[in-house]
Amino acid sequence: MINVFQKNLFWCCIVYTIFTPNVAAAQSKLDSYIRQGIESNQSINQQNFILEKNVYALGEAKSMFLPNVAFSTTYTKADGGRTIDIPVGDLMNNVYATLNQLTGSNSFPQLQNQRELLNPDNFYDAKFRITQPILNAELRYNKKIKSKQIDLQKTEVLLYKRELVKEIKTAYYNYLKATNAVQIYQSYLKLVTEGERVNKSLFDNGKINRTAVVRSQNEVSKIEAAIVEAIKTQESAQYYFNFLLNRPLSDDILVDEISDLPADDLLRADNISNREELSKLKIAKNIKEDLTGLAKSYLIPKIGANLDLGSQAFDWKFNRDSRYYLFGISLEWNLFASGKNNYRIKQTIAEQHAIASQTDYVEQQLFTELKVRQANMQRAIAQYHAAQSQLNTSQIYYHDMSKLYKEGMAIYIELLDAQNQWIDSQLQANIALFDTWISYSAIERANASFNIQ
């Protein structure tokens, strides 16, 4: 009987060693999952498409500074409408008649008065128009705004990635917590199952009463139910973790061996300047400043040049006489708009003040979040040390009580109480360990210290 208890004690000690502090183990598998999650996350992919759209919008804004070439043509077929009378015969026939008398010939024929349509008939006009902006403040501010919108969207993508990293880490540690809980219960089930067998043997030999047998049977049933619950918790954690990685929910999860506390370097950090939320507000403020400049750009005249190269003639003729060019310089200056521009400027300035006020509030909010996360980690560390102390105490208590029970100096109820204390302390140590890592991930999120590739 002593060997049986020593054997089961050995199995439980293996579980206990999981929670004793060791040298920090590299979490290479978790890092690999984080990269996989970032690459496959649908929300991040959607934000990347928006970023791609903004890049194209900037390219469009830049192209507005370059020459624009357009081809256009018109063809006119007309009949009827207004006409103009040209008295060619009345003006020239008398002169031509005199010339014919003087020359004794008919070289100068008589002319008819003409009536011409004002609408051109069978007339075409085809041309290339080249336009080039020379001075246009609106185009300059539009380009600056589009460029800053790209920076804003890049920050938005980074914000999504940082939140995803936190969620992946939290889900990963919750899965490890559930997995270790299953292992603890399974190891304990071996112990109580063996205890049930031994108690039945002792009862059959008349050395103990039925109470010990009933209690040992109840303990086996309780642990079996606890294992089922722990497995379901493990499966739920597995499903959520795989969901974050956008892969089949039932895929196996490779785990790192984590047996020590995270570093405490972030407990003293108070820098939140790397938070993407603040970067977004800063970029938004700069965009509002550019919008103010855009609203004020009406004070600067718009100057442009245009050149037409074309051909126009009747009956589709194309020759030297039909070809032409027109070159011009245009100037547009908005001198009066009934106060519309001033109201627009005041709107953008008010929006700048609103963002500045919002930035101060968000800074205080984020700093408060950081301090709360740090306090949570300090509490988790304290709970871990307390759990470790309780684990050591319960192990010694169980070891002593098992010796007394084997020597017949303690009843089974006392041994069962020692076993329950030990299993509870193992579970609490398991929870406390991974709660510290979850708290550490929350601090990484709070001060944006995790390096996202």
From TrEMBL:
Cellular location(s): Cell outer membrane
GO molecular function: efflux transmembrane transporter activity; porin activity
Family classification: Belongs to the outer membrane factor (OMF) (TC 1.B.17) family.
GO cellular component, one term: cell outer membrane
Lineage: Bacteria, Pseudomonadati, Bacteroidota, Sphingobacteriia, Sphingobacteriales
Alphabetical keyword list: Cell outer membrane, Membrane, Transmembrane, Transmembrane beta strand, Transport
Protein name in UniProt: TolC family protein
Chief location of this protein within or outside the cell: membrane
Annotated organism of origin: Sphingobacterium olei
